[in-house]
Amino acid sequence: MDFSPKTFTVADYVVFALMLLVSTAIGIFYAIKDRKKQNTEEFLLGGRSMSAYPVAFSLSVGFMSAVLVLGTPSEVYRYGTMYIWILLSFVLMSTVTAEIYIPTFYNMQLTSVYEYLEKRFSRLIRIEGTLLYMLQTVLYIGIVIYAPALALNAVTGFNLWAAVVSTGIVCIVYSSLGGLKAVIWTDAIQAIIMLAGFLSIIIRGSVVMGGFENIWNKCLEGGRLELWKFDVDPRERHTAWNISFGAGFLFMALYAVNQGQVQRYLSCRSVKEAKKSIMLNNIGLTVLNVFAVMCGLILYAYYQDCDPISFGVLQKPDQLLPYLVLDIFQNYPGMPGLFIACVYSGSLSTVSTAITAMASVTVEDFVKPYFNWEDKTFTWVSRGLVVFYGGVCMLFAYLTSTLGHLLQAAISVLGLVGGPLLGLYTLGIIFPFANSWGAFVGTNAGLAAAIWVFIGSRNYQPSPDFLDELSYSTAMCPGNFTNITTAALTTTLPSPPQTQDNAPPEADLYGLSYMLYTVWGFCWTVGVGLLVSGITCGWYGRKGVDPRLIYPFFDHWVFKCLPESFKKAMRCGVQHDDEKKDDVELYSVTGLKENRATYLNPEFKCDKTEQADINGCSNF
C-alpha cells in the first residue's frame, strides 16, 4: 500500500462537475416544461401525479445517503458487521408505514403533514411539531453538508468550503427552479450514481485483494464478521435487538411522519402507488446498505496490517473510504471523481429533500393561514423559501465539526427529535382518547427525556465493555514513513473513553445505546401523553374525533380472527364505517351536531362546554 500524498486529476474534477451539471439541468428542464403550471401543488407535490418508481429512488437516498457512503464502511471497519441487522429494521419500517401512516395522510390530501396535528389536536400542537421538525432538519443537514466535505478535504485536498458552497448552490438552483419533480428525478439519477460508486469499489477492491473470498477470510481472522450478538442490555452499543428495533423506530420517524418523506408519498397518483413506493424503497435501502457493508469489509481487508488512523496518516474514521479509493484507483483517472460524485450525490439528495420540505411546511403552516394571496404568489414564496433554507443549512454546516463519528452523530440527532414526533403522531392516529393536553405534555416530556440522556452521555461515557471497538494493527506499516515513530508500529487497541469515578446512579442510563434514543423518546411521549389525556378527561371526547383522523388498527386483516365484540371495544366508540359517506354528522356527548367538513375546518368554533367534550376537559 502507498501512503504517499494523493491528489485529484483533471479527469476527477470533470466527472464531479458533470454530476453537478446534470443535477442543475434537470431543474432547468422542469422549470421550462412546467412553466405554465405555476401553482403550489405542482411545485411542492409534483401535481400529485408521480409514479412509484422515481419516488422509491428518491425515498432511498432522501436520508442517510452521504452518511451511508462514508459512515457505514467505517462502522464495519471499526466495529464489525453487527450493523447489517439494520436490514430487519427496514422491513419493520416499511410495513408499519405502508399499512398505518400512508393511508391516513394520503386520504386526507394534505400538503404539510403537520396539518394533521391541527385537525386532530390544536393549532399549538401543529406549530410545535413544525418547529421541532425544522430544528431537527437544519441540524442534520449541517452534518450531511459539512462532514463529507471535511473528510474529503483532509484526504484529497478538495477545497472544504468550495465543496460546501457548491453543494448548497446546486441544490438551491434545481430545487427552486423545478420543484419536487426536479428533486425526485434528480434523486433517481443520484441513486444510480451512488450504486455505481459502490460497485466500482467492490469490483476493484475484489480484484486487488485476489477475490472476495480472500476479503471474507481476512475479515474472519480479524473478528469483523460478528452477527450473533443478542445481549438484551440496552447499554450495549450494537446488538441484534437494538439495531433491528431501535433503527426500526428511527426509520419510522423518518419515513412515516417526516415531511421530507411524506411529501413524496403525497406526490404519488394514488395511495396504491404511495404504498408501492415505500416497498420498493425497502429494496433500494437494502441494496445500498449491503454494498456499504461490503465496502467496509474491503476497507478492513486492505488495511488489516496497517491501520491508517493508528499510523497517523488519517485523523478520523470517516476519511478511510476516500483514502482507500485514492489508493486502489490511483492509476485510473476519473474513478476517484466518480466516488466523489457518489458522496455528493448523497449530500445533494438529502439537502434538496430537506429544503423543499421546509419550504412546504413554512408556506402551509405559517404563511397561508395569515395571507390571502393568489396561488401564483404562494408558488413564488415557496421558491424564495427554498433559496432561504438552502442558505440557512450552509450556515449551520460549520456547527457539526465537534459531533464525532459521522454515522453515530447523524443517528443521534435524528433520534432525539424523531422519537417524540413519532410518538406525537402515534398518539393521534392510534388512540382516540388522546387529547391536546396529552399531546403537548407528552411531546415535551419525550423531548426532555431524550435530550437529558444525550447530554448525560456526553459527560459520563459508557464503560468500554459496551463499546466493542475492535483491534487494529500497524505491524506491517512502512518503517520509514516520516510522520510516525517506530514505537507506533505495534498492534494497538483504540483508546477507550474515560469514565468518571464518582458517577451518579443515573450514569448507567446515560450509557443507553444511541440506537435506542428514538425508542426512548417515543415511549416517554406516548406514556406521558396517555396519562395526561386520562387525567384531563380525554376519554369523554373520543366519540367526537373524526374517523378519518384515527387508523382502525384492530380492523386490519391481521386481526380478522378476533371477536367482533373485542374489535368494537377497541374502536373506543369511533365509527369508522362513517368514512364511506360523503357527509357524516358528528355527535358529542352533549349533543353537538356538525358536518365533518365544518369540524375539520380550523376556523370552526364552539362554546367552552362543547369543545371540552370533543378534546377533553380543556383545549388549547
From TrEMBL:
PROSITE patterns: NA_SOLUT_SYMP_1, NA_SOLUT_SYMP_3. It is found in: Cell membrane. The chain crosses the membrane at residues 13-32, 52-70, 82-102, 130-152, 158-177, 184-203, 239-257, 278-303, 338-359, 380-399, 405-425, 437-455, 514-540. Keywords: Cell membrane, Glycoprotein, Ion transport, Membrane, Sodium, Sodium transport, Transmembrane, Transmembrane helix, Transport. It catalyses: iodide(out) + 2 Na(+)(out) = iodide(in) + 2 Na(+)(in). Pfam families: SSF (PF00474). Coiled coil: none annotated. This is Sodium-coupled monocarboxylate transporter 1. It comes from Clavelina lepadiformis (Light-bulb sea squirt).
